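Hi P.,

Sorry for the delay on this. The queue was packed all week, but I finally got your sequence through. Input first:
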Amino acid sequence: MNFVLYSCFALPPGAALYTLYFILLKAGLHRESLIAKCAVTFLSVASAGFAVCLKGGNPLAEPAFWFFVLCTGADALLGIYFIPGMLLFGGAHFCLIVWMVEMVSGGGNQMVWTSVVVWLPIYTFTLILFRKELQKLGRRRLPFCLYSALLSASFALGLTVPFGAGETYLTLALGILCFFVSDMMVGKATLSSLPRWCQKPTMGLYWGGVYLISAALWI
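Then the structure:
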């Protein structure tokens, strides 16, 4: 029931702002489009805070809440300065990792180690995928590799959480999968090139991922 209420709250304004973002982008209003872009993610900040409060918690003490706050800030920064924006997203993933480690630790240390084993091939995949771009990054190579490591770690933990914390967290795993695929597309579009039509599915996957991750707080 909570998930249904959350969906009713988040989806209509999210869809409207998603549409507005691309209308403004097409019109060449880049600053205004950034406001719409951040507003979509901020819906998850509000949703996460509300969900934590309903459970009697303090949002400011929850790593998951700060994940959404940092994602919102990174949305704005990424459109202006790519590397600082990427590192801010890295901070967001660190918060997400802390939250998920707390969940899977209930399943014993074995679950944490399983996620480490899963992380290694995922991280290797990202380095292989961007092997050509890495050669051209120069001093930006280190922050890129650091962010890729954090992104891969959150993805690996996301795949592990349903086994350690229960199948109800499958939405979280799916959300992080969407986030991971979206980030791979953003990286390729920024450092190399992707067709222009990829913008909409890229942002759709990102916001869909944020929505599903936020939905996990309502479980």
